[in-house]
């Protein structure tokens, strides 16, 4: 069990990260026509609009909340907010965002499974990644009661944050995760697996979403109309004449 635990939390994350980066690059280089999120917006537009907006709003908040909340060292914010207060804010904000994301994803999943026309035109990977994300959200929401219980003693949160920060610095310590409640470990394991599956699913369109931020700093393009010097009594020839 110790060997398996060390592999999952010391080695497996880097396998997922390597596949995530190299797989995304290879797909963009070889299969650019598949670099998209297939649209089915002509069917059940109302359900799609509500589901997509709720899902994307929730998932973006959760992503950046996990990114900055877990990877920010404790000494940076300890002068402004205590670890217990940070834990409480994370539970409340994460719970609200998770619930919003869960409702939106459930609408999208229901639409894709129970509408015959959408289901028949959906790729298997589309359904698979939606189901995996839904399970990940359920596991994440199931950690809220334990996280709320940890407010008075936020050592579990600090241990997980230290583990993730060590992972980023290429100095992971799987012992920090040992003994933590199973749903925290399952949430982390499935999160790593989502990065592993990322290049082979429709999730690659996330790169394009972040790529559009380049338009904010792109220089203006000078566009001039081309004028043809045509005498007033002469008309341009028509195509085919």
Automatic annotation (TrEMBL):
Database matches in InterPro entries: Heme-iron_electron_transfer (IPR051936), NarG-like_domain (IPR023234), NarG-like_sf (IPR036197), Nitrate_red_gam (IPR003816)
One Pfam family here: Nitrate_red_gam
Topology term for the membrane: Multi-pass membrane protein
Keyword set, alphabetical order: Cell membrane, Electron transport, Heme, Iron, Membrane, Metal-binding, Nitrate assimilation, Oxidoreductase, Transmembrane, Transmembrane helix, Transport
NarG-like domain sequence ranges: 6-226
Gene3D superfamilies: Transmembrane di-heme cytochromes, Chain C
Keyword Oxidoreductase attributed: yes
Superkingdom of the organism of origin: Bacteria
Residue spans crossing the bilayer: 12-29, 50-68, 88-109, 129-148, 188-217
Coiled coil regions in record: none
Subcellular localization: Cell membrane
PANTHER family reported for this sequence: NITRATE REDUCTASE PRIVATE CHAPERONE, REDOX ENZYME MATURATION PROTEIN REMP FAMILY, RESPIRATORY NITRATE REDUCTASE 1 GAMMA CHAIN
Protein name: Respiratory nitrate reductase subunit gamma
Annotated source species: Rubrivivax gelatinosus (Rhodocyclus gelatinosus)
Lineage: Bacteria, Pseudomonadati, Pseudomonadota, Betaproteobacteria, Burkholderiales
